[in-house]
Each structure stands twice: as C-alpha cells, then as structure tokens.
Amino acid sequence: MFTGVFGAMLSGILLKRLPLRSALARGALLGVGAHGAGVSRAHEVGGEEGSVAGLVMVLTGLLNLFAAPLLAAVL
C-alpha cells in the first residue's frame, strides 16, 4: 500500500523529471510502479495513460501469477 500511495504522490515530479514523452511510457510507469493508486493518477493525467496503466498493472499481475510457481519450483 505504501508503494502505491508514495508513487501516486511523487508521480507529478517523476513525470516532469524523467524524459518520458509518450503516453504509453507514462502510463506504464504509473501502472507498474504505483499499482492501483498509480492507475487512478494516470487517469487524471490522461485517458490513454490511464488505460495503459491499468493494462500494464493487470499484465504484471498475470505474469507474477504464472511465474511465481515456476520460480518456487526452481528455488
């Protein structure tokens, strides 16, 4: 929870300082880095950013869902 809130609070600073110009990159940054709070903040930035943030957050969750058992078997 801390990561999401902290990421959403700093998103304005990060988006200004990082050289991310495309909506895809900005949305992916917020979706992966700040989770649900980041998706909410990305929707405030723009519709495309919000859509990408939600999609990236879901895809990251699915990747973790399938990768975790495989990694647990190896470790």
Automatic annotation (TrEMBL):
Keywords: Membrane, Transmembrane, Transmembrane helix
Gene Ontology CC terms, in alphabetical order: membrane
Localization: Membrane
Superkingdom of origin: Bacteria
Pfam families hit by this protein: LrgB
Transmembrane residue ranges: 51-74
InterPro entries tied to this protein: CidB/LrgB
Keyword Transmembrane helix listed: yes
Protein name stated in the entry: Inner membrane protein YohK
Organism (species): Pseudomonas fluorescens
